[in-house]
Design brief:
Order of helices and strands: HHHH
Number of strands: 0
Largest sheet: none
Helix content: over 70%
Shape: globular
Structural class: mainly alpha
Number of domains: 1
Number of helices: 4
Strand content: under 5%
């Protein structure tokens, strides 16, 4: 929890800038569409009991708008996807080490 809080405090601005400007430029209507789709998908998944990340859904919605408008930043999406693939095994490793150190 402390690590998540520190990460949020230290990197929230950068993440926000990447999502809002790095994937594609959005006009107000596109931004509204991305937010509505994100909200609806997260609510729908919650009703089904499926855990989803709001950030992942939002990035997907924004990238979809970039694809349709022809203004996507594929390099940025590639970097985001790579970071998502990297963080899962790293988090698993850190959790295993912490569990081992704290005893079970």
């Amino acid at each position: 929890a402390v690590g998540m809080a520190l990460g949020g405090l230290l990197h929230a601005r950068r993440v926000g800038e990447t999502i809002s400007h790095g994937i594609t430029e959005l006009n107000r209507g596109q931004g509204l569409s991305a937010n509505l789709v994100t909200g609806l998908l997260v609510i729908f998944a919650s009703k089904l009991g499926v855990p989803v990340s709001t950030t992942h859904v939002s990035v997907g919605a924004i990238f979809g708008i970039g694809v349709v408008s022809g203004q996507r930043n594929s390099a940025m999406i590639g970097a985001i996807l790579l970071s998502w693939l990297f963080t899962l095994p790293v988090a698993m490793g850190f959790s295993a080490v912490a569990y081992g150190l704290l005893g079970h």
